[in-house]
C-alpha cells in the first residue's frame, strides 16, 4: 500500500515537472522571439526618422508648387509666403507622425489606443486639407486645366450646333411660305380668267390675291437671303472651335493658353448669338399674324350690283382661306420657337487647384499619389504597433509564477538560506529559569 502511494506521488511529481518544463520552454521561445523583434526594431529605428523627414520634405516641395500656382503675384512676398507655408506643412507632417510612431505602439489599454487612433484620423484629415490637394494640383494641375478647356470646347460645340440647327429649322419655314405664296399666285391667275368671281380681268379680287402673294414673296426672299449669313456664321464658329481645340493641346504654359482660349471663347459666344438672331422663325410668326389681319380691301369695281356682290362674296371666301393659311404658318413658326434653345455657355478661367478638385475623377492616380505621400507613415505606425504587441506577448510569461525578477530571486535565495541555517547564538534569560536542583547522594 505504501509502495503504491509512493509511485503515485512520483508520477504526479514527474507530470508537474514536465508541465513546468513545457511552460519554461514556451517562455524561453517567447523571450527569444521578443529579442529578435526588438533587435529588428532597433535597426529600423536608426533610419525611420530620416525616411520620415524625406517624405515630409517631398510633400512640402509639392505643396510649394501647388501654392505658387494659386498665387497670382510673382513677387518676393509671394515667394516667401509659399516657402513658409510649405515649411510649416513639412514640419507638421514630421512632428505628427513622429508622435504617433513613438506613442501609439506602446499603448497598452484599448482606451488609450482608441484615442490615439482617433487623433491619427483627425490629423490625417488635416494633412489632406492643408497639403494633399495642393500636391495633387502640382502633380496634375496643368492636365486638369486642359481638361477644363476641352470640356468647355465640347459645351461650345454643342451650343453652336444647337443654335445652327434651330436656325435651319427656321429656314425650313421658307418652304411653307413659298407654298402659301404659290397658292395665292395660282388663285390670282384663275381670277384673271374669271375662274373665281366670274368676272375676268384684274379687278378687286385679283388685287387682294396679288397683295398677299407679294407680301409672301417678300418674306420668302428675306428668308432666302438669310442662308448666306447663316452659313458664314456657322463656318466662322467651326473655325474658332478648331483654334480652341488647338490651344487645348498646344505646348507651353497653360496660363498663357488660357488667356488666348478666353479671347476665342468671347468671339464664339458672339457667333452663337448671331446665329440666334438670324433665325427667321419670329419673323414668320409675326408675318403669319399680319397675313389675315392686315388686308387692304380694294373698291369693288364691277359694272353692276350683281358683279359687285360676286366680288364681295369671293373676297369674303378668300379672307377665310387667308386666315386658315395664316394659322398654318403661325403653327409651323410656333413649333420652331418652342424648340429648346441652345444652352448658354460662359467660359470661366479656373486655377490648377480648382481644376483638380472639379475633375478629380479623371485624375484618381494623381490624387492617390498626393495622399499616399502624406499618409504613408500611417502604415509604419501600424507595423510598429504590431511589432510592439509581439514583443510584449513574448516577454510576458504564460505562468505568472515564473515572472520573477533578479531582485526577487535574490531575496528568495536569502530567505531560504536564513531558514536553513540555525542561529549561532541563542539568548537565554537565566533570571526567570528556576534553579537546578542539586542531587544529594
From TrEMBL:
The keyword Membrane applies. Keywords: Membrane, Transmembrane, Transmembrane helix. The chain crosses the membrane at residues 41-65, 77-101, 113-134. This is Uncharacterized protein. Residues 420-441 are annotated as: Disordered. It comes from Yoonia maricola.
Amino acid at each position: 500500500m505504501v509502495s503504491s502511494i509512493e509511485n503515485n506521488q512520483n508520477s504526479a511529481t514527474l507530470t508537474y515537472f514536465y508541465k513546468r518544463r513545457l511552460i519554461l520552454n514556451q517562455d524561453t521561445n517567447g523571450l527569444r522571439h521578443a529579442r529578435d523583434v526588438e533587435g529588428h526594431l532597433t535597426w529600423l529605428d536608426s533610419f525611420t526618422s530620416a525616411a520620415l523627414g524625406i517624405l515630409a520634405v517631398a510633400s512640402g516641395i509639392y505643396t510649394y508648387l501647388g501654392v505658387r500656382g494659386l498665387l497670382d503675384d510673382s513677387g518676393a512676398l509671394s515667394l516667401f509666403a509659399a516657402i513658409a507655408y510649405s515649411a510649416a506643412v513639412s514640419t507638421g507632417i514630421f512632428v505628427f507622425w513622429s508622435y504617433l510612431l513613438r506613442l501609439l505602439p506602446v499603448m497598452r489599454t484599448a482606451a488609450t489606443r482608441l484615442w490615439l487612433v482617433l487623433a491619427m484620423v483627425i490629423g490625417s484629415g488635416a494633412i489632406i486639407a492643408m497639403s494633399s490637394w495642393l500636391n495633387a494640383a502640382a502633380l496634375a494641375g496643368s492636365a486638369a486645366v486642359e481638361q477644363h478647356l476641352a470640356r468647355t470646347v465640347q459645351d461650345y460645340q454643342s451650343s453652336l450646333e444647337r443654335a445652327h440647327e434651330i436656325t435651319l429649322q427656321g429656314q425650313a419655314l421658307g418652304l411653307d411660305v413659298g407654298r402659301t405664296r404659290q397658292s395665292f399666285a395660282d388663285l390670282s391667275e384663275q381670277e384673271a380668267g374669271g375662274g373665281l368671281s366670274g368676272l375676268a380681268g384684274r379687278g378687286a379680287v385679283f388685287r387682294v390675291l396679288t397683295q398677299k402673294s407679294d407680301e409672301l414673296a417678300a418674306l420668302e426672299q428675306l428668308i432666302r437671303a438669310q442662308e448666306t449669313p447663316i452659313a458664314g456664321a456657322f463656318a466662322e464658329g467651326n473655325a474658332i472651335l478648331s483654334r480652341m481645340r488647338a490651344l487645348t493641346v498646344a505646348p507651353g504654359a497653360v496660363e498663357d493658353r488660357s488667356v488666348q482660349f478666353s479671347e476665342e471663347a468671347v468671339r464664339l459666344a458672339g457667333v452663337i448669338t448671331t446665329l440666334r438672331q438670324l433665325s427667321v422663325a419670329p419673323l414668320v410668326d409675326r408675318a403669319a399674324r399680319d397675313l389675315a389681319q392686315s388686308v387692304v380691301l380694294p373698291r369693288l369695281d364691277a359694272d353692276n350690283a350683281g358683279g359687285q356682290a360676286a366680288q364681295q362674296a369671293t373676297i369674303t371666301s378668300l379672307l377665310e382661306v387667308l386666315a386658315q393659311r395664316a394659322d398654318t404658318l403661325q403653327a409651323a413658326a410656333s413649333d420652331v420657337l418652342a424648340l429648346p434653345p441652345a444652352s448658354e455657355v460662359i467660359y470661366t478661367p479656373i486655377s490648377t487647384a480648382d481644376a483638380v478638385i472639379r475633375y478629380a475623377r479623371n485624375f484618381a492616380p494623381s490624387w492617390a499619389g498626393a495622399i499616399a505621400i502624406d499618409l504613408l507613415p500611417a502604415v509604419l505606425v501600424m507595423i510598429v504597433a504590431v511589432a510592439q504587441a509581439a514583443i510584449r506577448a513574448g516577454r510576458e510569461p504564460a505562468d505568472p509564477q515564473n515572472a520573477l525578477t533578479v531582485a526577487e530571486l535574490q531575496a528568495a535565495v536569502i530567505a531560504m538560506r536564513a531558514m536553513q541555517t540555525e542561529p549561532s547564538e541563542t539568548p537565554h534569560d537565566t533570571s526567570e529559569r528556576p534553579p537546578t536542583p542539586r542531587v544529594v547522594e
